[in-house]
Amino acid sequence: MALSKLDSLYMAVVTEHSRNPHHKGSLDGVEVLELHNPTCGDVVQLSVKIEENRVADIAFDGHGCSISTASASMMTDAVLGKSLSEVQDLAELFSRMVQGQEPEGQEELGEASLMAGVSKFPQRVKCATLAWNALKKAIERQNVQ
Fold first, then answer.
1. Which domain holds residue 140?
2. Could you tell me which residues come within 8 angstroms of residue 111 by beta carbon, excluding any fewer than 6 positions away?
3. How far is Cα 40 from Cα 29, in angstroms, rounded to an integer?
């Protein structure tokens, strides 16, 4: 069975982000939020620096499958510099997309829009959304303070 051009692009981008993740590490002086995926053992530690209601810097660490790592890497690229309301919208858009919905505006996710293919594998949705869920929690914590 031959892969479509979109499937080939998805595989190439996921592989690249998994092998060479962007914004990998942690930020000094920023609270680290850790989430686990009990289904497969993936762990993400997310550091988000928020200044003037925007994501001024972001980093992640942890361990997980290629989808989890690639999704976290793509997420950091997509949200850096965005306002918190934009980030919340992107997180919701991503969540709907990987659950098989086809929301308008997916292109706003940048390379993360390629993760739409995860919807074909429901057991991998939690892997793809782990870092995004950590981001939502980090923003919720920021809004409470």
1. 5-144
2. 13, 17, 74, 77, 78
3. 30
**Other Cβ atoms closer than 10 A to 104:** 7
Q: What is the pLDDT of residues 104-117, one digit of tens each?
A: 888 899 999 989 88
Instruction: State CA 125 to chain mean position distance.
Output: 11
We report the CATH number of the domain holding residue 121 as 3.90.1010.10
Using one digit for the tens of pLDDT, what is the confidence trace for 46-59?
Answer: 999 999 999 999 99
- Give the count of domains, the chain: 1
Looking from the CA of 90 toward its CB, the CA atoms found within 13 Å total 27
Task: Output DSSP code: residue 31.
Answer: -
Q: Are strands 32-36 and 43-51 parallel, antiparallel or unpaired?
A: antiparallel
Whether the pTM exceeds 0.85: the reply is yes
CB 94 within 8 A of CB 129: yes
- For residue 3, give the DSSP letter: P
The residue whose two tokens read 């993360």 is 112
